[in-house]
Amino acid sequence: MTDVAKLAGVSHQTVSRVLNGSPQVRPETRERVLAAVAELGYRPNAMARGLVSRRSKVLGVVTFDTILYGPACMLLGIERAARAAGYGVGIVTLEQVDRDSVLAAVNTLAGQGVDGVIVIAPQEAAAAALHSLPTPLAAVVVEAGREVGLPSVAVDQFEGARLAVRHLLDLGHETVWHLAGPDGFGEARDRREGWQRTLAAAGAPVPPPGVGDWSARSGYEAGLALAENPEVTALFVANDQMALGVLRAFAERGIGVPGRVSVVGFDDIPEAAYLTPSLTTVRQDFDEVGRRSMRLLRQLIESVEPEPQPPVAPTLVVRESSAAPR
């Protein structure tokens, strides 16, 4: 750092302010320091900075063992935001999601000296454990439901379902059937509630929902049953993987999409635009979830009164799988 200061013609303290993102540096001075950093190939010593600030500049993330698109993308969004903020990330992945496992994972990370933790908790069993976290540790929870009572960030799952159902009703369908996610997931509960309440508000019949396990296989099995019901003209599926299975089942039974049945999914997986037909779905902004989680955690770490985080707004992506009924 001394060499950087000498080359830039500034003090040691000014270099420190620039490297720590302080706004109390003139733009031209900042540019001169950054040019010197680049010329010398200087890299800050994270351990030394931690000794001075008494912070490790590492945060912990607790997630669960899954290949599901949503939680995996949330983890990626958090990692991106952490790197942008100059933090390293330590991850604990749970094979079993229950109160004891969640608390053990958080305690493991706390023992490693992390500055704070982010817990991805879409399952209600994990959310229930969050009120027993070690109190001195800054902690943010992600997707733990709308009433968790802790510093949290979440996508507005209810609004996403409302967008999907309202889209199908506006196309002229008398009602919308639903293939829900599994019990025990807050996201599945909120999407189901959004579907049900949107139909009720429109005065439309509320059919009995089906239940899957988020997998394409469960969507396929549900799709075979739905194909036998001539009353089904519009279907909202709680995630895109299950919707993929539904589309396969409908194709096997000669059910045209959207000719006979319109289908809307949730998540906007990368493959959604390339299915046949391309899938109308609800997109979640996982990068924004990461940014808000990181912003909220830094406020807690720095003992700043945390700003209330409104739900991240989803968006409807209209493609070929939804159309007006015949």
TrEMBL record:
Residues in coiled coil: none
UniProt entry tagged with the keyword DNA-binding: yes
Span of domain HTH lacI-type: 1-53
Molecular function GO labels: DNA-binding transcription factor activity; transcription cis-regulatory region binding
SMART domains: HTH_LACI
Pfam families named among the record's database cross-references: LacI (PF00356), Peripla_BP_3 (PF13377)
UniProt xrefs under SUPFAM superfamilies: lambda repressor-like DNA-binding domains, Periplasmic binding protein-like I
Keyword tags: DNA-binding, Transcription, Transcription regulation
Region (Disordered): 306-326
Source species, domain of life: Bacteria
InterPro entries on file: HTH_LacI, LacI/GalR-like_sensor, Lambda_DNA-bd_dom_sf, Peripla_BP_I
Protein name: LacI family transcriptional regulator
